[in-house]
Amino acid sequence: MLAIVKIAGQQFKVQVGQDLYVPHLPGKTGDKVSFNEVLFLDNNGSVAAGEAVKATVNAEILSDLVQGDKVIAFKMKRRKGFRKKHGHRTHYTRIKIESIA
Fold it and tell me: Is the pLDDT reported for residue 50 higher than 90?
């Protein structure tokens, strides 16, 4: 069973038992979360898309806060002495897909 689900404004292709990193979700380790915005569903050759999809994806939070790689934003204007350096690390949540129903 395969589904495309919208989580925090991004689309993810998920299967049962899969671990994935999604943008930070509220909750603690061990909490159960469900996602109702399923855009596409493939159930052993039976395909449903758009408004015809009536499914929910259930998942468990494995790690509530995971930091991504450091991203550097550097601005510079030549011959002016202007240099600006900013950096950040995006926060993610690691979840495990339990069921697609």
Answer: no
